[in-house]
Amino acid sequence: MLKYYLEIIKPRIILGNIVLIIGSFLFSSRFSFNIFLFISTILGTSLVIASSCVFNNLIDIEIDSKMKRTKNRVLVKKLLEPRLACFFGTIIGGLGIFTLGFLVNFLSMFLSIIGFIIYVFIYTFLKRKSIYSTFIGSFSGSIPSLIGYTAVNNSISIVCILLFIIFIFWQMSHFYAISIVYLADYKNANLPVFPIVKGVSKTKKHIFYYIICFTLSSFILTFLGYLSYVFLFFVSILNLYWLYISYLNMKEKDHFKFSSKIFYFSIIIVIFFNILISIDFRF
User: CATH: 3.30.70, 1.20.120, 1.10.3470, 1.10.10. Which one for 157-283?
Assistant: First the structure.
């Protein structure tokens, strides 16, 4: 039974968001690291994200049943009662909000609630009707970086907003690549994702443009003095290679060959990006 509850919180999504929290928290902390605040921020935010994933699973039962990669999920196979999942999601969400509000700060708590609302009540329903659901969803996916930063400073600054925008560009590239890789699944579920409505070729171009935006906005962090040229050097190598793969993807007739590489390399990109901003001491 425990493994069913673990599955519906989508651990991989939580781990991906924890990377953003850690990176922005350490970037914001620098020489005043507070271990208790660090653990509280990760715990509270992770619980809220887990809750949003539970409710996403509940709302998407019908869609998930039509897609090959999701048809064996716990709620689809009725291995867990929806009312129990709903109760579980409510409890862990409440605990997460409580943890952030009382052990971190109210700004971080407020941001987590916004992220929850966007993901559960806007993105989850909008993806059934609009190609722009991915863009809206990227906002909730980038909010953990805001939470990590505001947990330390209890304020929103220019660099905080820059990080938020940078991760939006990253997420658009990441999820557009996913939408190409799992194109057949989205067709079966009758979801109007970008490559289905606008075509795969156009989606590839958009991935290329978003990676350019991600790369240029990353450079701004150094040019404005927030991060060092050491950061700029290493992030440039990674970003330019990612851009090169995307360029090859546009020229390749096989829609899946390079799209999967873009997807997997995007994971490497976001991990190393957050490591670099965590250990850079320019700020």
Answer: 1.20.120
